[in-house]
Specification:
The complex is a heterodimer of chains A (806) and B (191). The two termini of chain A are 44 Å apart. In chain A, strand 21 (525-526) and strand 22 form a beta hairpin. Chain A is an alpha/beta fold. Chain B has helices spanning 5-16, 29-41, 89-92, 94-98, 122-140, 167-180, and strands at 43-49, 58-64, 71-76, 108-110, 118-119, 141-144, 150-154, 157-160, 185-186. Chain B is elongated. The termini of chain B are far apart. Helix content of chain B is 35%, strand content 21%. Classes of the chains: A alpha/beta (806), B alpha+beta (191). At the A-B interface, helix 11, helix 14, strand 12, strand 13 and strand 14 of A face strand 1, strand 2, helix 3, helix 4 and strand 4 of B. Strand 12 (340-344) of chain A pairs parallel with strand 8 of chain B.
Chain lengths: 806, 191
């Protein structure tokens, strides 16, 4: 979230699309309700009528996988009716940037497409530069090659008639949603978006969110209270685990995993440190080497020295241009190239797309380590449905982890708040905290490698001193994450003693004199104490619910990021009532500003001491035109990999031309196949969570939601002769699932391009291990393993199925 | 009278509806006040954050200072500025997650081609795992790729997890995996 949960109350218009906050983030809805009591409108767009819809001022449906068409129509509406905030777009976004002549778009493809490699040459989308190497800009937004004009041209095709044919949404509903949301473009008004996996789990997942980000920029909704782009994250610490980068492509603090071509630390820092020739661009990532060297110092401590590149060579490199994502990982395992597998607090036998493929893949392993609170479908895959233990060679170690209330440490919520938890009871039975398991395993590995082995240096040199009295000590790690001065360091004339905690990332150094295991969390545990444990109840002076002394949030306790865009060029808030920051003539007051530089003053003659608003961007401006994305600088509607239409009505390109497609026997896909004529989607219920492993073994919750079900419309039920409560069989090109039919008014047939298209939905929380009768299986047996070309998040929100009586 | 849970809920539901004398045939009021006292007098009070979704609601945990030292009650934290004491169905059932008879309490091992689990000790399990890791890592370790570039990695071991771990655990986990040379490191954020 660019903003945070409480801030939703400040909104004038809330769009909930791609999420179902009332059921899946129930407590967040408190703030939706609060905003509504203050006059805010709630719009909900979803294939299904949910409890969120029940509270909405406007509810309308769209077919799964057509969000870009829906939102592209809104962009057209905003531009055609000149409803955008021109002052904001001109000053803070790349709307005025002039795009080079090589950029073009035709028949659903952007320029630079290589059909054979299914890849774009992104250099064709570059901006035109002036003689100083700064992008050419036309602040009046009149240049025919400026981003805003190209945006207008791109979405000129997205008229409501065509959009309605694609999405199945009535035109009148489209117009009502567009008009209501676009009203937040007025100065002082704020609109927000609450989205979740309903947007990410598509082959166009990133571009779904980019489309909304463009709308938010056009309407001046970024950086302001009650605005922003807000991902409702689904796991208690998925924000923190992402920040610490338990992901193949990034290192802690969103640094890059080094590519093989980055042959030295110097080459690595050079490639990933952006350069700007614009003196007004803060280009914050110019500090990259300070963060990468401080991270290496945390990895290897005193063993990391300038002479050995701080241990850079000891860490693994990935091949340039190759993906090592979740889908690739299981594809490799399925192909038999993987021997050993760790599953820590995760249940891929149920949670991964095309779960049947994952389960088969596990039988190719030599060994697996499964760490969890409960026996699960992953650890016990060898005794699951259709498996013959006598023919499965995989050795499995199943280790009992303790529950969160039995250990101490911090987690980071969706609003980036890092919150400290304390130990209540001791771990039950012989269970242990993940921290203790990891520390102990590390010691064991250090021990076995003492006797020799292949490339032992990184293991031997890994700093591993996070125990106190033989137990894992979260405070020691939390301090390391913040970082230390490793020598006496003088910054701006002030001496910081060796061994003290670094006050904030502005103090980190690139010469090895500081450590910080994650620069983004530098400032979270300082000489003043553990900031995450704070419980201060006072609000800040702007009284918008920032609560700056309650817990801590990254970066540097800034509660609303991009807040330099919440003010005009003089530093006066766009919204005088719910203001975020304000220039008082000497300094910024309110939230922690995105840098302390004074306001710009004017665009013609900006204050040379000031900086452009979007400090994390190389050129200092938010990106309406996003030339870094794998699938194009503007979002374009493509159909899902599996869809009910033979043609994309928007262009000749049916599906994303760059989405990954896997070719194993287990990866079957069927589009417009009469055997699978119904659109399927997945969702959650309030009583269960994720693959269900932390809720299905609980009698209270299981009693409330005991069975996997398929929710179908009354019309489809009648057509199929299915009664409410009957067990039915759902099938896809990849698998089948027995489930209970729930016939409701919440799904309705769509009219798509003149034809009737049905859609059904499944909760994805089930698996054969719990409940113990073994009859409630995972819907991921049906879903396809394809994904977004940027992130490779699988397309589990739109696929084709059939449902029949048993 | 044997009262099943469902029956109990029906009866106590009826008392909540306003009957002066409960269907149970006895008055629950003194039990309630005793329960209140139990929570505070014999319990350690700690705060926690709900482990389910990422709203980050606060809860208060009461752990017995006597006897088994287990959780007596978990409820919403009224002093938490986000949830102000409220919890959803999952958060409200948090004690049911902690004090759960289905929990895995011992390290278990399944041998090749075996039909069953066997209980093992922590020391045995971690020693054996470390040996497996070393054997696989050393056999699959790649110092240079096809282009003769130094890569120092193994693709023979892969790891997934976990957004269910604390920040500090996440950090040491990825440090250990990366120091071993793993590049296939993924978790919930990708799915």
């Amino acid at each position: 979230m660019t903003n945070h949960w409480i801030d939703i109350k400040n909104s004038d218009c809330i769009l909930i699309m791609g999420s179902n906050a009332a059921e899946n983030h129930p407590v967040s809805f408190k703030y939706v309700a609060k905003a509504m009591r203050n006059g805010a409108k709630l719009i909900n767009v979803d294939p299904r009528f949910t409890r969120t819809s029940a509270k909405a001022d406007i509810f309308t449906r769209l077919r799964s996988g057509t969000d870009i068409a829906f939102l592209g129509g809104m962009i057209k509406h905003i531009l055609d009716n000149k409803l955008y905030n021109k002052a904001y777009v001109s000053a803070y976004t790349n709307g005025p940037f002039v795009v080079g002549e090589k950029f073009g778009f035709k028949d659903g493809l952007f320029s630079g497409y290589d059909e054979k490699a299914r890849k774009y040459d992104k250099s064709q989308w570059a901006f035109e530069m002036d003689k100083n190497g700064v992008p050419k800009m036309d602040r009046s937004l009149d240049n025919p090659r400026c981003v805003l004009k190209l945006l207008e041209q791109h979405y000129s095709r997205y008229d409501t008639k065509l959009v309605s044919k694609i999405t199945g949404t009535p035109e009148a509903d489209l117009n009502e949603v567009y008009k209501t949301y676009a009203a937040t473009g007025a100065t002082g008004k704020a609109g927000t978006i609450m989205y979740a996996m309903g947007w990410t789990q598509h082959t166009v997942g990133v571009q779904n969110i980019r489309t909304m980000a463009i709308i938010q920029l056009l309407l001046g909704n970024m950086g302001v209270a009650g605005g922003g782009v807000n991902a409702l994250r689904g796991e208690s610490n998925v924000q923190g685990s992402t920040d610490h980068c338990l992901l193949w492509h990034i290192w802690p603090g969103y640094l890059k995993t080094p590519r093989a071509s980055n042959v030295s630390l110097e080459a690595y820092n050079k490639q990933w440190t952006p350069k700007s020739n614009d003196p007004l661009s803060a280009n914050w990532w110019q500090n990259y080497p300070k963060y990468s060297v401080s991270l290496l110092k945390s990895f290897f401590g005193e063993n990391a020295t300038p002479g050995n590149d701080f241990g850079y060579d000891w860490l693994p490199k990935v091949d340039d241009g190759k993906a090592y994502s979740w889908l690739d990982l299981f594809d490799e395992m399925y192909r038999g190239t993987v021997s050993g597998f760790f599953a820590w607090g995760q249940n891929p036998a149920c949670s991964g797309a095309n779960a049947g493929k994952n389960r088969k893949a596990m039988a190719n392993l030599d060994w697996m380590v499964n760490v969890n609170l409960f026996d699960n479908e992953t650890g016990s895959f060898w005794r699951g449905p259709g498996m013959d233990p006598a023919s499965i060679k995989t050795e499995v170690f199943m280790l009992p982890a303790c529950v969160s209330v039995e250990k101490e440490g911090s987690i980071t919520n969706s609003g980036r708040w890092m919150q400290w938890r304390y130990q209540g009871p001791k771990p039950l039975g012989n269970s242990r905290s993940d921290g203790d398991i990891i520390m102990e395993l590390g010691y064991k590995l250090k021990e076995v490698y003492k006797k020799g082995g292949t490339f032992t240096k990184p293991i031997k040199n890994l700093k591993w001193d996070y125990m106190t009295n033989g137990m894992y000590d979260p405070h020691k790690v939390a301090k390391e994450i913040n970082g230390y001065f490793l020598e006496d360091v003088t910054v701006k004339g002030k001496l910081y003693k060796k061994g003290t905690l670094v006050p904030s990332f502005a103090f980190l150094q690139a010469d090895g004199s500081t450590s910080s295991a994650n620069w983004l969390y530098c400032n979270s545990y300082t000489e003043k104490g553990n900031m995450a444990a704070r419980r201060g109840q006072e609000d800040a002076e702007n009284k918008i619910g920032l609560y700056p002394e309650f817990s801590w949030c990254w970066p540097v306790n800034r509660r609303i990021i991009y807040n330099r865009a919440s003010v005009d060029l003089k530093g006066e808030p766009w919204d005088k009532k719910d203001w975020v920051i304000r220039w008082n003539g000497k300094k910024w007051i309110g939230d922690v500003p995105d840098g302390g530089w004074p306001p710009l003053g004017s665009l013609d003659n900006p204050n040379p001491k000031s900086k452009w608003a979007f400090i994390m961007r190389k050129h200092g401006h938010a990106q309406i035109f996003g030339p870094g994305r794998a699938d194009g600088p503007f979002p374009e509607h493509y159909e899902p990999l599996e869809c009910p239409v033979e043609e994309n009505l928007m262009s000749k390109q049916r599906m994303s031309p760059v989405a990954p497609v896997y070719g194993s026997k287990a990866d079957a896909f069927k589009t417009c196949d009469p055997r699978y004529p119904i659109v399927g989607t997945t969702y959650r219920v309030s009583e269960h969570w994720q693959s269900g492993l932390m809720t299905r073994p609980q009698p209270w919750l299981l009693e409330l939601q005991p069975q996997v079900f398929v929710e179908i419309s009354e019309e489809l039920a009648k057509f199929k002769g299915i009664n409410n409560g009957e067990r039915v069989l759902a099938t896809s090109a990849r698998g089948s699932l027995e489930c209970t039919a729930i016939v409701t008014k919440r799904f309705k047939p769509f009219k798509i391009g003149g034809n009737t298209v049905h859609q059904v939905g499944f909760p994805w929380h089930f698996g054969w291990r719990w409940p113990e009768n073994g009859k409630e299986e995972s819907v991921n047996l049906l879903t396809p393993a394809t994904g977004d070309p940027n992130t490779r998040i699988p397309e589990t929100k739109a696929f084709m199925v059939n449902v029949s009586k048993i | 009278m044997k009262v099943t849970r469902r029956k109990f809920m029906q009866i106590s539901g009826a008392t909540a509806a306003g009957l002066a004398v409960s269907g149970l045939g006895f008055d629950l009021a003194p039990v309630r006040s005793h329960a209140q006292m139990l929570k505070t007098k014999y319990a350690k009070e700690t705060t926690t954050i709900c482990p389910y979704c990422a709203v980050g609601c606060g809860a208060i945990v009461h752990t017995s200072k006597k006897g088994d030292g287990r959780v007596m009650n978990i409820e919403g934290d009224p002093g938490h500025v986000i949830n102000r004491g409220s919890l959803c169905s999952k958060g409200a059932a948090l004690s049911g997650l902690t004090e759960n008879t289905n929990r895995l309490l011992e390290p278990m091992y399944r041998a090749r081609y075996s039909k069953e689990w066997q209980q093992v000790s922590w020391d045995w399990a971690l020693t054996e795992i470390a040996e497996r890791v070393k054997k696989t890592r050393d056999a699959t370790f790649t110092k240079k790729n096809g282009k003769r570039q130094v890569v120092n990695r193994t693709t023979g071991i892969v790891s997934v997890g976990s957004a269910a771990m604390d920040n500090e655990e996440c950090w040491i986990y990825q440090a250990l995996m990366r120091s071993l040379g793993l590049v296939y490191i993924e978790h919930q954020a990708r799915i």
